[in-house]
Amino acid sequence: MSSKADTNSPAFTGTPTGPTASAGTNTTQIATTAFVTSAVTDGISTERTATVTLTNKTINADNNTIAGIAASSFVLSNESGNLDVAAAQKVIPSGDVVGTTDTQTLTNKTLITPNIDSAQIPAVSGSAPLYLCRAWVNFNGTGTVAIRSSGNVSSITDNGTGQYTVNFTTAMPDADFSANVSAYREGNSGYSFLGYSLPTTSAVSVTTINKNLLSDAPSLADNTLVCVSVFR
User: Fold this and answer.
1) Which residues does residue 122 pair with via DSSP β-bridges, in sequence order?
2) Does any domain span residue 93?
3) Structural domain tally of the chain?
4) Is residue 196 within 8 Å of 222, Cβ to Cβ?
5) Residue 77 DSSP class
6) Residues 99-156 pLDDT 10s
7) Residue at 178 is within a domain
8) Which of 206, 210, 163 is nearest to 188 (CA)?
9) Whole-prediction pTM value?
10) For residue 110, how far is the Cα from the chain centroid?
11) How far apart (Å, rounded) are the C-alpha atoms in residues 165 and 138?
């Protein structure tokens, strides 16, 4: 009777076979190796084509593509967190991004900077070019010189009565700029003559001269309000 198996906890030898259950069967029926292999393959295929929202997940791309997205779209690193030089072929295609030193034509792009935006530059008409002020300052030129408000001006140097130096925070490309000066002296009974000289890429010297209505002799004079703007 050694060729017969017991009905209770039988121990088979050789390669016993049996019927393969239909895909998706979920009963106490015995599963063949064919059923198990098919179920695992179907499960992997489903996972590969499933649409899943990933949050705070790390995706390790190989040399192929992921669901049609080029592997170059991902940051490449090895297990140590360093650049994976073995995947050098994963280069972002030219034109997809703008480098800090590139010259590239931008189409339908919005540029936002801390200093220039659409609210600060009004709409203009005509073909004449629009030039922006490179530096400006409003300061008190009497007593202890003090800046009230400014743009790209780091400080004012008091060089004596009616003589000031406006120092730029960021230098001009060259000294061939135009400086506009205006001033007001409280209690002034005459006219203020204004001028600038000794322009450099980092500063410009400003002079304010007052001429009394009853005198022909102009003299250097401090002013309570001095405004300077620089265009280049």
Assistant:
1) none
2) no
3) 2
4) no
5) B
6) 666 677 777 777 666 655 555 555 666 667 777 889 999 999 989 999 999 999 999 9
7) yes
8) 210
9) 0.48
10) 12
11) 13
